[in-house]
Amino acid sequence: MKETMLEATLTDTRGKPVTKANVVFDLSMPGMTMGEQRVKARSQGDGRYTAQGNFSMSGTWSIQVRVAHGGKRKLAEFNIEAK
Question: What is the pTM of this model?
């Protein structure tokens, strides 16, 4: 079980930092029932958002970054290998 710092940096189409966004990291392990691991990120300024996540075992994890800002919602998904 390893606690990890999760970080997302948000910019608009002109490269300017996005502030006052609602950012949530949703961690899951494809093909496994791991329970909900959804953590709300805190703004660190300059479009940077961080949260603490927990990878409870090694293997492939999916990280969904859910962003709500200005009445719009965006989703980005990344797969990582936890060791």
Answer: 0.88
